[in-house]
Amino acid sequence: TIGSKSFSDKVVKHVIGMKEESEKIREQIQNIL
Known about the structure:
Mean pLDDT: 92
Distance between the termini: 48 Å
Radius of gyration: 15 Å
Helix content: over 70%
Number of domains: 1
Strand content: under 5%
Low-confidence stretches: none
Number of helices: 1
Largest sheet: none
Shape: rod-shaped
């Protein structure tokens, strides 16, 4: 259904956002070390 597709799109965007945030945090930790 259309509703489930828009929901899955939101989940995908959220997961991608989490990945980008974790990569930023990892870079910051490496800079500190």
